[in-house]
Design a protein that fits this description.
Number of domains: 2
Structural class: alpha/beta
Number of strands: 15
CATH architecture of the largest domain: Orthogonal Bundle
CATH topology of the largest domain: serine acetyltransferase, domain 1
CATH class of the largest domain: Mainly Alpha
Distance between the termini: 45 Å
Strand order of the largest sheet: 3-6-9-12-14-15
Order of helices and strands: HHHHHHHHEEEEEEEEEEEEEEEH
Length: about 280
Amino acid sequence: MPVHDDNIIFLPLEEPASRNVALLWETLRREADAALRRDRALARTMNAAVLMHASFGHALSHRLAIKLFDHDIDRDELLTLVHGAYIDAPDLLSAAVADLLAVKDRDPSNTEVLTPFLYFKGFYALQGYRIAHWLWTHDRSHLARHIQSRISEVFAIDIHPAAVMGRGIMLDHGSGLVIGETAVVEDDVSILQNVTLGGTGKETGDRHPKVRRGALIGAGAKILGNIEVGMGAKVGAGSVVVSSVAPYTSVVGVPARPIGRPHTALPGVTMDQVLSEPDYVI
């Protein structure tokens, strides 16, 4: 059973919960309880992170606040801010659920939702971005920039709060990831570490890539300029992409070029990193 923890702040309201949020919360609590029973040394972690909270929104708010507070905005202020966003925009929680399930389904090193919820910085950088984007769209740009800066400092992942990110996104490892102001990343995309979705210089306006649904971006890829990576495309590790990629097409190299035959699946979901050309894997 959960024990009292003076570090927990009980929030006064529960955010509206859709069925998928409620189901995820049941699963998360069940996995946390099982982990605690297997190893009593984890009692404080499981209680503080999951079991003492009233809802998924409460738990996620606490986790983000603990990871991102600093001397400028303390933990309690950040906790109130994040949970207020979830009350105002419950779709933020639905997106978090989709992101968490994407990690569970696609990461071969993980078979549950508890581990990424507790430990995966790609997941938390994405949820922090979602709060920053909510602030940005509510004309609170300086606070959004503060959250962006803290995410970069804590997780080494830099996502501009004006960028548009879908749901069901997996940022695998995430270290070194940079996503620019006018970038778009649609649903069901998977991005590995050290990827840049950037501009090409001093141009202004709409200047960053648009990554369409179900694309897979390999480690170290650089995608530059207002170009499109089509639905279901694959970008090979270390590639530099400076022109648009057709849907369901694989590209590799510097500069990137199409390779092999078009495919029909969404590699961002299947995590199929093998290309049809011999001996090349994303």
